[in-house]
User: Fold this.
Amino acid sequence: MKETSSVKLFTDSLHKIAYATDASVYREIPYGVAFPETVEDIQELLRVARERHTHLIPRAGGTSIAGQVVGSGIVVDISKHWNHILEINPKEGWARVEPGVVRDELNIALKEYGLFFSPETSTSNRCCIGGMFGNNSCGTHSLVYGSTRHHVVAAKGVLSDGSVEEFRNYRIEELEERFGEKFWEKASHERLIEKIYAQLINYAHDEKTAKLIEEHYPDKELRRRSCGYAIDEVIKGLTPSPSPNSEGSINLCKLLAGSEGTLAFITEITVDLDPLPPKEIMVVCGHCDTLDKSFEGNLVALQHHPTAIELMDGDILELSKGNAEQEKNRFFVDGSPAALLITELRAESRDELDEKADALERDLLQSGLIYKCTRVYGADVSKVWALRKAGLGILGGMKGDAKPMGVIEDTAVAPKYMSAYMKEFQAMTRRLGANVVYYGHISTGELHLRPIINLKTKEGQQLFRNIATETAMLVKKYHGSISGEHGDGRLRGEFIKMLYGDETYQLMRDVKHCWDPDGMFNVHKIVDTLPIDSMLRFDIGQVYEIERELGTDHTYFNWKADFDECTAPGATGAKSQMNALMCSVEQCNGAGDCRKSNIIGGTLCPAYKVSRDELKTTRARANVLREILTRGGDESLVKEVLDSCLACKGCRSECPSNVDMTRLRAEVLQHYYDKHGTPLRSYLVARMAQIEQLGFAIRPLYNAVASWNLSSGLIKKAIRFSSKRQIPSLSRYSMRQLVYKENCKFQASNFKHKKVFLFADEFTNLQEAELGLTFARLLMRLGYQVEIPKHVESGRAAISKGCLKLAKKFAEKNVSLLADKVTDAHPLVGIEPSCILSFRDEYPDLVAPENRDKAKALGRNCLLYDEFLLREIQAGNISPDYFEKTEMDLWLHGHCHQKALVGVDKTAKVLQQLLTGAKVHVIPSGCCGMAGSFGYEQEHYETSLAIGEMILFPAVRKAVKLSDRVPAVVVAPGTSCRQQILDGTGVKAIHPIEILYRQCLRSVPR
Ligand SMILES: Cc1cc2nc3c(=O)[nH]c(=O)nc-3n(C[C@H](O)[C@H](O)[C@H](O)COP(=O)(O)OP(=O)(O)OC[C@H]3O[C@@H](n4cnc5c(N)ncnc54)[C@H](O)[C@@H]3O)c2cc1C
Ligand code: SF4
Ligand code: SF4
Assistant:
């Protein structure tokens, strides 16, 4: 730890905008942002905040839904530096962690001990233990494991006066030893911590207070409660009045859980651990013909000791229909039930499991509440939960201004009241004219109710308030909690007084005042909150300032293709395109999937993974875009926040709302260049293929200049490329020339299959022409006639650099040259994923409106090599008999555009099916880090290598190490990926078609 603090306070606009929201509907620009590293830093921040009349907002993953981490103070992000697991004690079953440790990462570390931290959230792969403690989080299995409050045994933290405290279970005797006999009776207290204990002990001793708590706190049967301060929980261990002196004990962690960073700044947490659950798992999926029956059915299922019961309503099930990804996960749904009651059972053996399931099914069917049960076992259970989550994803990604709103999404009532509560709730929402979707943890009475609301209208904001108020009144009637797991933040605080009554609410205010008399921690949360509808993310009649900020009146992409629903009434032409563009930005709801680390996996978002810096998330980019393009501001911030985006398309497929930052980045950069000019480097990279084409005429000279240290050094310096990268040299002949020559050797009648068009992409054509020839030869050997049609470059480099005017020209030209030629029978096949996939992904939205249909049709017939080969294998035209059997390990790294648009499994399948004896290992890497020119750029070089070093490079090194047992080959279809692997590990990776060609028998009958 540092001796003295030199913590930096960031007050620049970029930080402030990125930290102005969480996953809620609120937005407030904070005073500043800080990333403390030590306890002294936090104390220093407290001092600074006091001096500047502001406060600290502790923040972890920032995935809160109720606006807990949105405010005017200094947002203190502990996820960057406080993310270490300090100690695991498997024998005693506890772990001591820093508050920024991600929940799932802790459990990955615990797996080897057969233990886990049992509270969970749907965000568990990026939310942190500190945030879970702050919100008293829990999830699907709370029926068995309770909430975070039940598992935090001790914590350390800084109090509002800067003192450092350890919170754990203390016997009153121990406290008396420290503060003096009956210290709670003293008129004044020397230290803040003494005052805190005295207040709570006095509450326990005071009959009136005890009665207030008894009468006004939610039903004791309720297992989930994150509403208000848990005074009842913290004083539970104390003897009520008249106190027999020093009996009982108190653990402040019980109160700190769910206190949302309003009482203390937590720096260390000790949690107890559970043994991993029994290995056999199944779910019984009860089909109901009315939603109401599922509430009653829940009471029946609860008798059978399930580990979880979840509800999915018919609407969510409908949403998952027709979704290519989710069709395979619907196998257990029979017909169109109004609701599914999914009961999870666990046991040590399959027999025991079946016995439990038989009894459960019998009771459910006999009750007449369920008309059919289906069973799902083992690994397939994850598909059931995936379907539920996907429904939510689709819901979250609902396009248009009306969204399924998080406002009453967290109510919980005791299960016995659910049916009555929901009847009244439905009548109320019908009266208010609100459409609501239902899902949730029904076993504990928690339902996530999401009304569809357009917050940009006056009526929408009114509905937002009305539905929150009326739901709170209903919850009070059924002794429930308006927050079962998500917390109060600024969303629910307004209703706590009504729910708990004036006097109990005052007790809560007194608690806050005692701990934090000067308002140093997360003010206006839980108590004394601002009105529910203040500081909303969207304004009524929201106006976009795109034209002013970007100085433009048109867009380059056709944003309406995906976001037509968002067009404001009356907006036509270019205006409606601008609306649609903004809608695409507003798809980001802040849920933070783009904060997953490399330990969790996936591609999204590489620059964040390597830095753990919020500014490098897709969320930050979307936040800055939304802010500047709606409220105006310094437009250079947009460029700055986009600088770390690799345009890898990870977000396009992995962000549940499909925020497509690659496309947004290209669009915004082109407008920026229109206004300020295109930087030299972007200009040259976008035209690299054209430069190479010129260089090809003087190839020896070009290659000499590119490879000679002095000249290449000067070039790299001039365009700010890293001196450590090589400028690619040119092949002796182009792919076009080589394939033409090869073709001359054969007659069309030599081939038994139809003609295939090859795309001589700009990288393969001049830099790796031999590879292009290899592909042509492979296809010819397999009996396909090949031809490279007349076409121009794909424009991938231009798209990546934001030079859309140029890319548009390439797209138009290619569509005009190829649209009439390329058909389903004669597809255009490419081997460089980023180039051929541009035809499908970007061209249809880049070309002029009159060419869009043509571009779409062309795109459908443009295939990546693996898609084509798999299609032909399935048609019986290619078989493993054409390939030599061999024992080898193939280590496959997929290109990130391929992963986002097609998936890497097709390449794996082709290799596995055709190469008998080969074992294909898909490297669980995300982006390689090179991403076109990104890794070449001086300022990105280190980041680029660090991204490769996360998973890809170690996997490649391991593969090579293992090759002394079985021959190992590293395969990667992307040219940048192969270069990155070479630069990062010294290993030469090859394109998958090279290994296929090597193994392809010469004797294949053409
Ligand atoms: C799609 C989605 C699904 C969700 N599902 C669930 C669910 O199933 N169950 C559930 O419980 N929640 C759920 N949530 C809400 C949220 O993800 C969880 O409550 C989560 O635990 C918050 O963790 P975080 O790391 O993001 O914390 P943050 O949002 O950063 O902070 C949460 C609270 O903890 C406080 N805090 C953080 N660190 C400290 C510290 N060091 N000292 C003091 N206070 C601190 C903050 O001030 C804040 O009040 C969901 C959210 C989304 C967007
Ligand atoms: S960009 Fe996508 S993944 Fe990231 S916070 Fe926004 S919606 Fe979530
Ligand atoms: S394109 Fe890649 S780097 Fe850019 S925001 Fe999306 S995931 Fe992150």
